[in-house]
Specification:
215 residues; nucleotide metabolism; AMP deaminase activity; AMPD
């Protein structure tokens, strides 16, 4: 049996379909939708009559927290500046009150050549008076001008000073009982005249006096 040289035509597995009217309508509809999408992309940057909020609660919360922290930092900086300014004004006022004026300062007292009545007068000898040394104050004077300096009222200052003076007096008497030395300047500025003549038992608690009497 002789074989032919021309290959036989293979049958088509998938038949060729012609575009029908329905397919044409679908293609036209797809083109319209695609063109509409392109127009929306072009007009996306244009201003619209209304805006749709983007639902992002985490971003909104973080933005609010940042704004709140910024406002708090600004308020704190303003309050700090005001506090520094008021402190400088108060400091300058207190220093101006403590500084002596030109009228109050009269300089050291001049030495007067007044002789003591107990000094013997020698005939024929020239008396040269010794200049008295300038008496410097042992403590500086402090001016308390109100409760704005340290936040403490004058009544509290007075009560604290009285309590401190009372404690120092008790300490002085206990020191004399124990034969200890008490600072002379502190005893002088306590203001009681019986610092050296008062008996040691004065000012002690009643229990201590009872025990001493029983012994």
């Amino acid at each position: 049996m002789a074989l032919s040289s021309e290959p036989a035509e293979m049958p088509r597995q998938f038949p060729k379909l012609n575009i029908s009217e329905v397919d044409e309508q679908v293609r036209l509809l797809a083109e319209k939708v695609f063109a509409k999408v392109l127009r929306e992309e072009d007009s996306k940057d244009a201003l619209s009559l209304f805006t749709v909020p983007e639902d992002c609660p985490i971003g909104q919360k973080e933005a609010k927290e940042r704004e709140l922290q910024k406002e708090l930092a600004e308020q704190k900086s303003v309050e700090t500046a005001k506090r520094k300014k008021s402190f400088k004004m108060i400091r300058s006022q207190s220093l101006s009150l403590q500084m002596p004026t030109q009228q109050d300062w009269k300089g050291p007292p001049a030495a007067s050549p007044v002789m003591s009545p107990t000094t013997p007068v020698v005939t024929g000898a020239t008396s040269q008076p010794t200049p008295a040394p300038y008496a410097m104050p042992e403590f500086q004077r402090v001016t308390i001008s109100g409760d704005y300096c340290a936040g403490i009222t004058l009544e509290d200052y007075e009560q604290a000073a009285k309590s401190l003076a009372k404690a120092l007096m008790i300490r002085e008497k206990y020191a004399r009982l124990a034969y200890h030395r008490f600072p002379r300047i502190t005893s002088q500025y306590l203001g009681h005249p019986r610092a050296d003549t008062a008996p040691p038992e004065e000012g002690l608690p009643a229990e201590q006096l009872t025990l001493d009497g029983a012994d």
